[in-house]
Write a structure and sequence with these properties.
- The complex is a heterodimer of chains A (327) and B (249).
- With 327 residues, chain A is of the alpha/beta class.
- Chain A has one domain: NADP-dependent oxidoreductase domain (TIM Barrel, Alpha-Beta Barrel), CATH 3.20.20.
- Chain A is 40% helix and 17% strand.
- Chain A is built from twelve helices and 14 strands.
- In chain A, strand 1 and strand 2 form a beta hairpin.
- In chain A, helix 2 crosses helix 3, helix 4 packs across helix 6 and helix 10 crosses helix 11.
- With 249 residues, chain B is an alpha/beta fold.
- Chain B has nine helices and nine strands.
- In chain B, the strands form two sheets. Chain B has a seven-stranded mixed beta sheet with strand order 3-2-1-4-5-9-6, with helices on both faces. A two-stranded antiparallel sheet of chain B has the order 7-8.
- In chain B, helix 5 links the parallel strand 4 and strand 5.
- In chain B, helix 6 packs parallel to helix 8, helix 6 runs antiparallel to helix 9 and helix 8 packs antiparallel against helix 9.
- The longest helix of chain B has 16 residues.
- Classes of the chains: A alpha/beta (327), B alpha/beta (249).
- Chains A and B meet through helix 8 and helix 12 of A and helix 1, strand 6 and helix 8 of B.
């Protein structure tokens, strides 16, 4: 581990910096609106919470419309969707088109080749009912071989670049919850990469080993002027074994068990935002979204001591060491 | 290695790279892991608990380079098997709350003896808990059982000021103070571990007192479950560069 890397980074909670950011926090009627931060070098100022539109998949159209209105009323200007999120693209469509100029739209594809990516992009245009996507991302990079595929002459990125030249997409990004080393390789190998979406939460920060070194990814992205979007900020841990809790009995659709109380959600949001991420993506369950947005509008930095308290509390909760009396 | 953020933060501004280090009261070797990670030349991990010594040895075992830089010593921190003036950095990470008032000066004197001129000392420990903290009751039972079983408390939370004043009497001056945790997360595993220590002391106390302490410990631990309360501090001190410091006897 490098000196100074221990999960908590001083400069990012500098009170002076935070007070400048406060100029973005305005009271708009009775509605608190959240701060914004520069999304790398894209020129876009993203709200510190990004709406993960997969939440719409679990709602009927009327509820989906209300959800989008609620999200916008809190000051969210960055949405993220994917064709693999059930009906989310279709359900986002009506309100997206109504408020198109207020939404910076991220979409993505799991296709790794040129033809597939081109087809999926067109399909997303059809399903969303728009002709421009602000940010198009390689979705869920997991293996080194995929990095070879997408960067090849007939790879997905060739289709991305063509669409960018034609004015169909604005920026190119990548998402992954894979190996941090692989994500750093992607930064090195994709010169026109403008955003990255990856996990960051106090549990992975507490691990402190290379396998969980998403802080290293963050630092590399910052250095390269790449915007950073945090996922899994609200993950408590893996679901219990299916013998103990069958999949059908899980109370949330998330791939992991989320934290679900206002206090826990607020401290998780504060932690993720205090690491310096451009924006924190809301969890996939609509029941949690309003709590996250409320936390985002109240965000006011997080002391390093409180960040460490959270990391150390979760470390011991996750892996109780017998006779471990100290922190 | 898995290094707690408390240790990383406490060592961040200390010149660990290339230094000969002593972790006084190694426990499970948290500071040893942090010192090795930060590039220490040599780490003496001293503990008087054979089980802890094994844990620390196992912890450094997977890495040949870390194993080579670590010596785990089973010894009392009041009489260290180390030469005078031989250590560049001393850490006492969560040590002093386990040192009773009767021994605290002896520990300070011994750490000073092995410290080289200009040595850095890092003391990480807990401020006394606020009056309304529920874990206070658990620690009170742990102390009561320990006092009755062996004539000294299990835990003493020294304010940072008190340890600074003590060490300044041995020629150390304060370099910096830092809050490591505020609040301190006393998680379920901490509460269980303290309850288990209290129960084992209570077993050495004759009944009916022993049984009462054990039952109360169980009740309080169940009621507390976990709590975030109090503050953990880090004080960094430095020994005068001029070698001859007359330590009070």
């Amino acid at each position: 581990m490098l000196p100074g890397r221990g999960g908590v980074i001083a400069a990012r909670t500098d009170p002076a910096v935070e007070s400048v950011r406060h100029t973005f926090l305005t009271i708009d009627g009775d509605v608190r609106r959240m701060q914004t931060r520069a999304l790398g070098d894209t020129g876009h100022e993203s709200s510190i919470a990004t709406f993960g539109a997969i939440a719409l998949n679990w709602l009927e159209q009327e509820g989906a419309n209300q959800m989008v209105e609620h999200v916008l009323s809190k000051g969210v200007n960055h949405f993220d969707v994917a064709p693999t999120y059930g009906d989310a693209e279709l359900k986002l469509g009506p309100k997206l088109r109504q408020h198109r100029e207020d939404i910076f739209l991220g979409c993505k594809t799991q296709e790794r080749g040129y033809e597939g990516a081109k087809r999926k992009l067109d399909r997303s245009f059809d399903r969303l009912g728009v002709d421009y996507i602000d940010l198009y991302q390689v979705h869920g990079l997991e293996y080194e071989s995929e990095l070879d595929e997408i960067t090849a002459d007939d790879g997905a990125l060739a289709a991305f670049r063509e669409a960018k030249d034609e004015g169909k997409i604005g920026h190119i990004g990548l998402t992954s919850h894979g190996n941090p080393g692989l994500i750093r390789d992607a930064i090195d190998r994709i010169d026109d990469l403008e955003t990255l979406m990856f996990p960051l939460n106090p549990v992975v920060v507490g691990k402190g080993d290379e396998e969980h070194d998403y802080e290293g990814v963050f630092e590399a992205a910052e250095e390269a002027g790449i915007g950073t979007l945090g996922i899994k900020a609200f993950a408590r841990g893996p679901w219990p074994d299916t013998d103990e809790l069958p999949e059908a009995d899980r109370p949330f659709p998330n791939w992991y068990e989320p934290v679900d109380t206002p206090n826990e959600i607020a401290e998780r949001f504060d932690f993720a935002a205090a690491q310096g991420l451009t924006s924190v993506v809301t969890p996939g369950d609509p029941k949690l979204v309003a709590m996250v947005l409320d936390a985002a509008t109240r965000y006011n930095g997080m002391d390093e001591t409180a960040q460490r308290s959270l990391v150390e509390r979760l470390r011991h909760d996750e892996s109780p060491v017998p006779e471990q009396l100290h922190h | 290695m898995d290094v707690p953020t408390t240790v990383t933060a406490a060592l961040d501004d200390r010149p660990v790279r290339g230094a000969v280090c002593l972790e006084a009261g190694a426990g499970t070797g948290n500071a040893t892991a942090g010192l090795l990670d930060a590039g220490a030349k040599q780490v003496y991990a001293v503990t008087n608990d054979p089980e802890h010594a094994t844990i620390v040895r196992d912890r450094v075992a997977p890495s040949p380079t870390e194993r080579a830089r670590t010596a785990v010593l089973e010894a009392d921190v009041r009489s260290l098997p180390l030469a005078d003036d031989s250590v560049d950095i001393v850490t006492a990470h969560g040590l002093f709350n386990l040192v009773g008032p009767e021994s605290v000066a002896a520990v300070a004197r011994e750490l000073t003896r092995v410290a080289a001129p200009g040595c850095h000392l890092v003391i990480d420990d807990y401020e006394p808990l606020p009056d309304d903290a529920a874990v206070r009751e658990l620690f009170a039972l742990e102390n009561a059982a320990s006092q009755l079983a062996r004539g000294r408390p299990a835990l003493t939370f020294y304010p940072a000021d008190a340890l600074e004043a003590l060490f300044s009497g041995y020629g150390w001056r304060v370099d910096r103070e830092l809050t490591l945790l505020d609040p301190v997360p006393w998680s379920e595993s901490h509460v269980e571990a303290h309850a288990s220590v209290a129960t084992s002391f209570a077993a050495d106390v004759p009944d009916p007192m022993g049984g009462t302490l054990a039952a109360e410990t169980e009740r309080v631990a169940d009621a507390v479950e976990s709590e975030s309360a109090g503050e953990m501090y880090s004080v960094a001190m430095r020994l005068s560069d001029s070698a001859a410091v007359d330590a009070p006897e």
